[in-house]
Amino acid sequence: MDDRRFEHALRDLLVRDGWMAQRVGGGGDQAADVIGDHAVLGRIVVQAKHTRVGGKVGSSVMYAVKGTAGPVHGADHAVVVTNGFFTRDAMTWGDRHTVHWVDRGKLRRWAEDGTALHELLKLPARSRGSWFKRAA
């Protein structure tokens, strides 16, 4: 599966889970490959990182997603998904700064086991006080 198909697959999984989602990735996507909207959970921005076997996603990806998900895309939730793994620093930073991460193991639970992403990540309902504020 190439990068584009990976992004389409993530979009399809969100749709399966009840999100109205679209693939927006490509040049100039500002760290958003898939954007989804949910009546209760709000908006989600997904950055897809399709890696080679054994590839790891580093902290710089988490910084980029944190910097654009709310201000640029109006997201309530930011998620980075990879078919590989994350560095320890990336996971720690994501946990500390509310950028959710889905590695190979979580991806398998989401895609193959049928666990909805919002259940897997325990995403809260949209709240007015969240650090991701919707654009007015």
Task: Give helix % range.
Answer: 25-40%
- Predict the CATH topology: Trna Endonuclease, Chain: A, domain 1
Strand content: 15-25%
| Low-confidence runs | 129-136
- Principal-axes geometry comes out as globular
- Tally of separate domains: 1
Task: Specify the oligomeric state.
Answer: single chain
Radius of gyration: 13 Å
CATH class identity: Alpha Beta
Structural class: alpha/beta
CATH architecture: 3-Layer(aba) Sandwich
Look at the structure and give the mean pLDDT. 90
Q: Tally the helices: what do you get?
A: 5
Order of helices and strands: HEEEEHEEHEHH
Tally the beta strands: 7
Largest sheet: 5 strands, mixed
Strand order of the largest sheet: 1-2-3-5-7
Q: How many angstroms does the end-to-end distance come to?
A: 37 Å
Domain Restriction endonuclease type IV Mrr: 1-110
Protein name: Restriction endonuclease type IV Mrr domain-containing protein
Organism: Streptomyces variabilis
Pfam family, one: Mrr_cat
